[in-house]
Amino acid sequence: MKRLCTICARGGSKGVRNKNIRDLLGKPLIAYSIEQAERTKLFDIIAVSSDSKEILNVAGQYGVQELVKRPSHIATDEAPKLPAIQHCVQTVEQNVSIQFDTIVDLDATSPLRYIEDIVGAVELLEKRNANIVLTGTPSRRSPYFNIVEESEDSVHLVLPPASLYARRQDTPPTYDLNASVYVWKRDWLFTSQTLFGKGSQLFVMPPERSIDIDSELDFTVVECLMKQRSEKVGPDNVQGTL
């Protein structure tokens, strides 16, 4: 079983300037994902994709050998992430003459994940013969009662009317995708048009490991949680143990 880990990190960021290499407790943010991938001991190769030379240089300093320069047309604010992952996989496969079986993408802005989360998501895909595994966390608020849309003359619930359920506790369990870990069968990565449906599985992570940094507030919260974790378990164990 050949496994590739991709970490895709654009240079531009409007919410948090230079967030992928911003210092977080003495390390650039992207370093946490690189080190987590290495400590799983799951991957034949770890690759970082970026349009930024600075990010690629930092990744190289942390031992990444496959540094993939992302073309500008898939590195814009509007560009979806999937083409960047596909480009990274294809580039690495050409470089090393290997076709991988399992592709794992780690979001560089999710440093709170544990190593066990990566291992668990990969095991879920391979043991259940799934096509894709997504990671998520229990919804903080039920979307059956709390997600609304505003039209010109009213506000209405996005999901079925709350009258179908007498209490919040009666609604089906729902989860927020946290974008922390994505695991694909290689063929599914290149042929599927959706992340959902038949053959998809969810790996559930707790809320305290599910924050994706997209704003200064997110960064502050993550930094606070990382400090608390370091004080509790020590700096060598802040990313979990196997």
CATH class: Alpha Beta
Helix and strand string, N-terminal first?
A: EEEHEHEHEHEHEEEHEH
Question: What's the total number of strands?
Answer: 11
Tally of structural domains:
1
Amount of beta strand: 15-25%
Number of DSSP helices?
A: 7
How far is the N terminus from the C terminus? Answer: 20 Å
- What is the residue-averaged pLDDT? 91
CATH topology, anyone? Spore Coat Polysaccharide Biosynthesis Protein SpsA, Chain A
Sheet with the most strands? 7 strands, mixed
Shape: globular
Helix content: 25-40%
Q: What's the CATH H-level superfamily name?
A: Spore Coat Polysaccharide Biosynthesis Protein SpsA, Chain A
Whole-angstrom Rg: 19 Å
Structural class: alpha/beta
Descriptive account of the structure:
- This protein has 242 residues and is of the alpha/beta class.
- It has one domain (3-139, 174-237): Spore Coat Polysaccharide Biosynthesis Protein SpsA, Chain A (Alpha-Beta Complex), CATH 3.90.550.
- It is built from 7 helices and 11 strands.
- The strands form 3 sheets. Strands 5-4-1-6-10-7-11 form a 7-stranded mixed beta sheet, sandwiched between helices. A two-stranded antiparallel ribbon has the order 2-3. The chain has a two-stranded antiparallel ribbon with strand order 8-9.
- Helix 1 (29-40) packs across helix 4 (115-127).
- It starts with a strand and ends in a 9-residue tail after the last helix.
- The mean pLDDT is 91.
